[in-house]
Design a protein that fits this description.
- The chain is α/β, with parallel strands linked by helices.
- 36% of the residues lie in helices and 26% in strands.
- It is built from twelve helices and 19 strands.
- Strands 8-4-1-2-3-14 form a six-stranded mixed sheet, sandwiched between helices. A five-stranded mixed sheet has the order 11-10-9-12-13, sandwiched between helices.
- Helix 6 (246-255) links the parallel strand 12 (235-239) and strand 13.
- The protein is elongated, with a radius of gyration of 55 Å.
Length: 531
């Protein structure tokens, strides 16, 4: 779904129509008019006030980005039929530009020009309907649109848009005169076949006297019959309804022999939104806006669009020539490549075979290196590992006897760089025993440090608590203390004199008999040992 906005400015008045287009079906959702009363203010203030009122009226109704189709009055442009020598269509823009600069009074520096080619007769002169607008008027329209919050997408001539809407309803009806009456203006547009041939605009008197308009209609009829090759006007159509123009229709029927009818511009459009109850008052004054909406919705080219005028065709496209040249060059390159490939195919095969062999060997080498790296890592880990069973056995052999010391906690841990650490917490009978224990345990593979020694009044026999840390270095299994003979001697002494405990027998480090801890969880010194 797309949304369209059409706006037309005229003195102290602006009209607008908002429509939606769904699959080519046009629905008019809003239409209205804003005016400012004549005042002593200057023209700039009046136009600014008019733009602000239009902005307020369009609040919430503008299409995305505020784009709008803007119509200008026939009185603001210079429109004239030009006769050109026979020429193809691609030469028309330059000929029109040259001829219009001499015949159109609006043509000057910065003026916008567009034209409509008229019916061409074989071998005769070309006819065009050329239109020009001065840059000052365009600048004024841009300022009004900016104040109103809209962006002109197209700049059209109002009378030609009304004629386009009439043609969409009454095609091939001969020569017709379409009269679009506004508040203080009237556009008289002559249509012959499928073309707009003449368009005039006259100011209407403020006293609603129809006589000046009747006189202008007579002059237009005579001018069409004498100065154009269209022939006489066969029908007069007034935009609006009989109720809107009953007096004008009656007078024309009395003084002219030409049939006079009314033309309802809203006929054929679907109404919705604000217009669900019916079209607005003075519906004939919306004819030009409806013509703009209809042409835009049906993707018809507007007769005159100053923002998108007809221009000379672009220079010949060299793309096909370039593509052909590139194709030839590509074919030559392919042939040369094939010749080179066929000449060195045997060498390429050897290179491929050697490359595959190299890849296979590289894969084998990579696997061997990965295996070597894994073996090296395992060897390094084994070299730095500690045989904790031998360490515990040696610690038990060198630890003080149970009557002198008892372990409460033993923690074994491996160091990341190799070796390990033994953390001990326990009680001793005398602080001097701790010093002897450190001396006994310290060697080339063990570094002993006691962090805390303090007296504990709760223990009667072992009154001193200690915390020690032993740094253990990795070593070969053969270097551990074995001494099975000395352990057997200590065991014999224990049997001979049970009251005297051996000095370095691990089995003598027991808890007191009243200990509540189960014996299955005891370690070195009779306390819990954990790795």
């Amino acid at each position: 779904m797309s949304q369209l906005l059409a706006v037309q400015w005229k003195h102290r008045q602006a009209r607008y129509i908002v429509a939606t287009v769904v699959r080519g079906r046009v629905t008019i959702t809003s239409a209205g008019m804003v005016t400012v009363s004549p005042a002593d203010e200057d023209q700039a203030d009046t136009q600014s006030e008019l733009a602000q009122q239009l902005r307020a009226a369009l609040e919430g109704k503008r299409p995305p980005r505020g784009r709008a189709i803007v119509g200008v009055s026939r009185a603001a442009v210079d429109l004239r039929e030009l006769t050109l020598p026979p020429c193809p269509d691609e030469d028309l823009p330059e000929l029109v530009q040259h001829q219009a600069s001499r015949q159109l009074t609006a043509m000057g520096e910065g003026a916008l020009l567009d034209f409509v080619p008229l019916e061409e007769k074989s071998g005769e002169s070309r006819l065009v309907l050329a239109t020009a607008i001065v840059p000052d008027h365009v600048e004024q329209i841009n300022q009004l649109c900016s104040h109103a919050g809209i962006v002109p997408q197209r700049l059209l001539v109002r009378s030609l848009a009304a004629g386009s809407l009439f043609l969409s309803r009454h095609a091939d009806d001969g020569v017709s005169l379409v009269i679009d009456v506004e508040c203080d203006e009237a556009d008289l547009t002559v249509i012959s076949g499928q073309e707009v041939r003449v368009s005039r605009c006259m100011r209407l008197p403020t006293d609603d006297d129809p006589v000046p308009l009747l006189a202008e209609i007579r002059r237009t009829l005579v001018s069409v019959a004498n100065q154009t090759n269209c022939g006489e006007v066969q029908r007069i159509s007034i935009c609006g309804t009989e109720d809107d123009h009953d007096d004008l229709v009656a007078r024309l029927r009395d003084v002219l022999d030409v049939p006079v009818k009314t033309f309802d511009p809203f006929e054929g459009f679907t109404l919705g939104g604000d217009l669900s109850d019916g079209p607005p008052e003075h519906r004939g004054q919306y004819t030009a806006l409806l013509g703009m909406i209809a042409d835009e919705a049906n993707n018809h080219r507007h007769a005159i669009d100053f923002l998108h005028p007809r221009r000379p065709p672009l220079p010949p496209n060299r793309r096909n020539t370039l593509i052909a040249a590139a194709t030839v060059m590509a074919a030559a390159a392919l042939w040369f490549g094939w010749f080179t490939w066929s000449s060195f195919s045997e060498l390429n095969d050897d290179i491929d075979r050697l490359t595959r062999r190299t890849k296979r060997q590289a894969k084998v080498v990579k696997e061997i290196r990965n295996t070597e790296a894994a073996v090296a890592a395992i060897e390094q880990w084994k070299q730095g590992d500690v045989d904790w069973l031998d360490e515990l056995r040696e610690l038990s052999a060198k630890f003080p006897p149970a009557r002198d010391a008892m372990l409460a906690r033993l923690t074994l841990s491996r160091a990341p760089a190799g070796g390990g650490t033994i953390e001990m917490q326990g009680q001793v009978r005398d602080p001097a025993i701790i010093e002897r224990m450190e001396t006994n345990l310290r060697d080339a593979y063990h570094e002993v440090r006691s962090r805390r020694v303090q007296e504990n009044d709760q223990e009667r026999a072992l009154t001193w608590q200690f915390e020690s840390s032993i740094s253990v270095a990795a070593r070969d299994k053969e270097s551990y203390l074995t001494a099975p003979n000395s352990l057997e001697k200590q065991s014999s002494r224990a049997k001979a004199d049970p009251t005297v405990g051996p000095k370095n027998t691990p089995s003598e480090h027991r808890l007191p008999k009243d200990s509540s801890q189960p014996s299955s969880k005891r370690g070195v010194g009779g306390q819990e040992a954990r790795r």
